[in-house]
Design goal:
Oligomer: single chain
Strand content: 15-25%
Strand order of the largest sheet: 1-2-4-3-5-6-7-8-9
Structural class: alpha/beta
CATH superfamily of the largest domain: Alpha/Beta hydrolase fold, catalytic domain
Number of helices: 17
CATH class of the largest domain: Alpha Beta
Number of strands: 16
Shape: globular
Helix content: 25-40%
Length: 496
């Protein structure tokens, strides 16, 4: 739901464009380019809202906007930057106090990118992303920033100082704070603005959007414990590449049992070319992940091939469509039939994760049992609902409640109850899968102090030194350690 709102600030009344999804928690403030609060900025705000963020784009020009560069330069030169920062502070308070968000990120473009870095000095800002903007502010002012930052430039930036941003990021990392500068070869200023074809760069824009969602996903949504949040705070010069090559930078999710968590996205439908208007049936695992993409010379390359191979022949632009928010994959009956192939659900899940998203597979009857169980083990959401499949059209807005597995087509105004799972499948699903279980168990292990319990004097007198070591490291704490008896041991102290 989008609407214009007003809010108070230290500089006086202010206003902006608010887009609020249902039951969202984190908030994002979108700061305008020098053109003003134009349709492009409103569209960006809507994109964030579609990812589940309460989004507010303050109108820093108070009703003025333009498409002429000369007028835009004039408007920016007249802008009181101190007042603008005060209005952004008011927007932060509005999201927290009125809209009820728990964390706030700020993202801005050009002039708004420079203001974003200044806004990061404010209380209540948890993370920020600046697109091709950096303020000529004193170092001592910017060095107070504690929020996690990401700054994105084109190689041919002609308005703001990339070296100044890189020096700032290096100082931040020296203080143990997160700051990253990414430079896209061949791109120029405003490479993200798809309303300006003369400067828009699709490859850079796609990668920048993925990084932004990942960055906000890590810092504005619940994530793993701090002990496990090994942030990669490296300034880098990004190579020209397809979207999402850095799969290890995907967004992290905490496992909360699914209570109240709602996934939102648009439908991506597989249509049957031989039956116009009908969904495609009998998609087998080889069509999901071709056999040629299941082998590689290295694990790193294999991980990429699983993703690159996903629906490579059926839908070559599948990856790009998922990254754009089409995260509800809709297919007909007998989905994922055929041979066992763990990399099929793994590749699908990873494609969404590299953009900070979660994928939901919606299909009709008779899904492949092995695919379904592998999907649950890996934490990929799969739903069988013939009615939902029959109703779905490309672009339909869907919601999926993780706890209850209830599915709703918001565009059609219809809700669906999926086919029930087997008890073991439901048990696996509730656990979050082997990856989530492993993360939770590892998180617990690093917080638990190792304890070695040696046998008491009466037991020790009956054991050799070697047997005492085996006794202290046995997995089964009740196991009888005697010659001729097998005893499973762990190489870590006291079996922790």
């Amino acid at each position: 739901m989008a609407r214009l709102v007003t809010f108070s600030s230290a500089a006086g009344p202010a206003g902006g464009y608010l887009v609020r999804p249902t039951a969202a928690k984190p908030g994002v403030i979108v700061l305008q380019e020098w053109w003003g609060l134009v349709p492009h900025i409103k569209d960006v705000a809507t994109r964030f809202a579609m990812q589940g963020y309460v989004t507010l784009a303050p109108d820093l020009y108070h009703g003025k906007s333009t498409v002429e560069a000369e007028e835009a330069s004039h408007l920016m030169s007249e802008l009181d930057w101190n007042r603008a920062v005060q209005e952004i502070a008011g927007a932060v308070r509005y999201l927290r106090d009125v809209e009820g968000v728990d964390r706030v990120g700020v993202v801005g473009f050009c002039m708004g990118g420079a203001l974003t870095v200044l806004a990061a000095t404010l209380s209540g800002v948890d993370a920020y992303v600046s697109f091709y903007g950096f303020p000529p502010a004193p170092a001592e002012k910017l060095d107070t920033i504690a929020a996690a930052g990401l700054i994105l430039f084109g190689e041919n930036e002609g308005f703001f100082s990339v070296p100044d941003a890189q020096a700032f990021a290096e100082r931040q990392r020296g203080k143990g704070r997160e700051a990253e500068v990414v430079v896209y070869p061949g791109a120029g200023h405003a490479f993200f603005n798809n309303d300006r074809p003369e400067v828009f760069r699709q490859d850079a824009a796609n990668d920048a959007w993925r990084r932004t969602l990942t960055h906000f996903g890590r810092h504005l949504r619940a994530g793993p414990s701090p002990e496990l949040d090994h942030a990669r705070h490296q300034g880098c010069r990004a190579p020209a590449r397809s979207v999402g090559r850095d799969a290890d930078r995907r967004r992290s999710h905490s496992h909360d049992g699914g209570a109240g968590r709602v996934l939102r996205g648009r439908a991506l439908v597989f249509w049957d070319p031989a039956r116009p208007g009908q969904k495609l049936d009998a998609i087998d695992t080889d069509q999901i992940t071709p056999a040629a993409d299941c082998v590689s010379e290295s694990l790193e390359r294999l991980d990429e091939r699983w993703k690159a191979g996903a629906f490579r022949h059926l839908m070559p632009n599948f990856r790009a469509r998922v990254h754009s928010g089409e995260t509800f994959v809709v297919a007909g009956d007998r989905f994922a039939i055929g041979s066992s192939r763990e990399m099929s659900p793994a590749g699908l899940k990873a494609i969404a994760e590299e953009a900070g998203l979660e994928l939901v597979v919606v299909c009709g009857s008779n899904m492949g049992d092995i695919f379904r169980r592998n999907a649950f083990n890996l934490g990929l959401h799969v739903v069988q609902s013939p009615e939902a499949v029959a109703d779905a059209q490309d672009g339909d807005e869907f919601t999926f409640v993780v706890d209850s597995r209830s599915l709703r087509n918001e565009t059609r105004g219809k809700s669906y109850t999926p086919l029930p799972l087997a008890p073991k499948e439901e048990e696996i699903r509730q656990s979050g899968g082997i990856v989530a279980v492993g993360r939770r168990d590892f998180a617990a292990s690093v917080r638990r102090a190792p304890v070695i319990e040696w046998p008491g004097p009466s037991v020790a007198r009956q054991l050799t030194s070697t047997e005492q070591i085996v006794w202290a490291h046995r997995v089964d704490r009740d196991a009888d350690v005697r010659p001729g008896r097998r005893c499973a041991c762990t190489p870590t102290p006291a079996g922790v």
